[in-house]
Amino acid sequence: MKFISWNVNGIRAVVGKSFIEQFYELDADIFCIQETKAQDDQVAEALSALEGYHIYSNSAEKKGYSGVAIISKEQPVRVLKDIGNQEHDTEGRVLTAEYEHFYMVNVYVPNSGDGLKRLDYRAEWDKDFAAFLKGLQSHKNVIVTGDFNVAHKETDLARPKENYNKVSGYTQVEIDGMDYLHNIGFVDSYRLIHPDTIQYSFWSARFGARAKNIGWRIDYFMVDERIKNKIADAFILDQYMGSDHCPVGLSLK
User: N or C: which terminal CB in the chain sees fewer CB atoms within 10 Å?
Assistant: First the structure.
């Protein structure tokens, strides 16, 4: 199976570019999208050109904000929105598709914000999201993908020393949250296949960061360690344009 994940930074914006052609070219069995910035009906309209796929979305109460979607060749057994926690379930950040042998969880993790104003909230979110994943793991294997808004290691961002504990996405609090996912049984599929490769999935829109490759790897496929032997490949498609993020992918045997 082939999986793709992409923070598109506005589904209506990318569909107006070349997203539909890119989608068919990538030919994923399951395609996860973050930051749709649209309500459910707007997501359905934006993706109406896609034929032969099952499309699901979870949108924020606040219009034009956050939002995730899953596009699947196979119809899931069921689809779950959010994580069952009222403190977090208004921002359209989690969508889970259950299949026969695994759960596919699509997540857009909260950004800690300018000046780290939401860092305390982010710590709570990480804890509660991990508890949600542990609950799923008790039933079947879990694959979780999306924009995690954290560079886990020094090799996952271009300027670690300048950013550590100063900028959202590379604070010890956020790193600890990712560490905990490893502790409860998840494997970073890209690092399993490419332990030392320097490659990024996000670049700031400012200062020509992408052209200079001053980037961050904050988009992941985290795979239940019980099925890590089924990982055939994990990859970052940094040649794909259209968003400040690029697609990331996973192939399972």
Answer: C
Q: Which of 56, 99, 103, 108 is catalytic?
A: 108
37-91 pLDDT tens trace: 999 999 999 999 999 999 999 999 999 999 999 999 999 999 999 999 999 999 9
164 is catalytic: no
Q: Is the pTM of this model over 0.85?
A: yes
Kindly name the residue from 103, 126, 147, 219 that is annotated as catalytic: 147
Output the average pLDDT for the chain.
97
Buried-state track 75-90, b at ≥16 Cβ within 10 A, e below 16: ebeebbbbbeeeebbe
Task: Establish whether 147 is a catalytic residue.
Answer: yes
